[in-house]
Design goal:
- The protein has two domains: 9-253 and 457-475, Aldehyde Dehydrogenase, Chain A, domain 1 (3-Layer(aba) Sandwich); 257-446, 3-Layer(aba) Sandwich (Aldehyde Dehydrogenase, Chain A, domain 2).
- By secondary structure, it is an alpha/beta fold.
- The protein has 15 helices and 21 strands.
- It has a seven-stranded mixed β-sheet, sandwiched between helices.
- 54% of the residues are buried.
Length: 483
Amino acid sequence: MAAYPTLKMLIDGEWIETGEAGTMAVVNPATGQAIGHCPKASPTQLDAALKASDEAFVIWSRTSGADRYAILRRAADLLRERAPAIANVVTAEMGKPRAQGLGEIAGSADVIDFLGEEAKRKGGRLIPTRGAQLIAQMVTHEPVGPAVLLTPWNFPVNLPAKKIAGALAAGCTAILKPAENTPASAQLLVECFVDAGLPKGVLNLVYGDPGPVSEHLIAAPSTRKVSFTGSTAVGKQLGALAASHMKRFTPELGGHAPVIVSKHADFERAVAMCAATKFRNAGQVCVSPTRFLVDKTIYDQFVAEFAARAGKLKIGDPGEDESVEMGPLAHGRRIAAMEHVVADSGGNRGEVVTGGSAIAGSGFFFQPTVIANPAPDSRFMTEEPFGPIAGVVPYDTIEDAVRIANSLRYGLAAYAFSGNLDEAHYLGRALRAGMVGINQLIVASPETPFGGVGDSGFGSEGGEEGYLAFTDTKLVMMAKAGG
């Protein structure tokens, strides 16, 4: 790849290389080597970003929806033009194969386009009045105010793009704090908005230690909305902080997606799709299919075929070989997390059919792993693995499968394969999740809401919900001036 970009923060329209709180190394997870150093914002710099966002909101919130759309549309076009270079950075920062990185960037541009269009469409509505004295009842969606956007590393372009586009389209200003190990991916995205003509202060970019930076930004009086994607544990902490200051909060948190494979499913199609999708991005996807609940009549066949496909995946440094199908985990801590899950298997607690260990050498690589019949109380069945580990569980009846699928407090995504129409409709209704895929493993598009229930969060991004999440609903009731 070309030289790694110089990392800079964006505060009130100025690009700043120096972090007054020091720097932190950015590591390529495929090699374990540092590729750059990221500035860390001091409280003073964070306050400058807050002030800029607050002041810019006065102007941006009054900018017409058509003008906001025009800027977002140009940003989306620039993102598409720059996709090859940005994909190289995504691969270097978090180990995503280049083809997957290009797909993420293309999808991000589509999301920006759609949410930008919402700025032109969401004018509100008129409600018929009940009496002669009232002449109008108008409902509008007003921008909530300056927003703080907190994003993780697994989709370092798409997740910031969703939040930025939703906020800016609605008329909000924003401060983006991306993950500390994927700062350049976010920076190159932000550059697209700046180069598209976004006024200064409307979008700010800061880096730093997640805890102190998040707490400082959320507690600030000018912040009116917080959007967070990350773990359930951290989401609960930030949600409590936002609630203590009466700040709007949208959390998209962890998942542990079940996949029900019925005896009525197209077996070859189901197993092929499941094996390919499970190990996408090394399993580091919040909606990754993870718990495979398979009818006992096809269970053994499914385990054998699924494990065989997992064992044939090409693993390596995607920055060196574009044919690699699965790259490294994001950092060394993920290796330890996978080892803990596997260590809890064995004996009557689940059979490791394939994989199960880290791959020797440089970088943070872990084998694609399949565990057959993991114990109900095992780490795998109760904690989100967020890595290349799948478990396959047999079931007797479709009702048993639903009970197992719904047994956790996670409720982000769920999937099912069935060729029986009545059964497919039953599964769509019965599975407890914010998003359900039937006979396919895609639950996201620019036009549709993305969000979960239970410990997976609340609220949605994407679709019209991604725009409305950054607005307050306002009612104006108008009566006649005189008798």
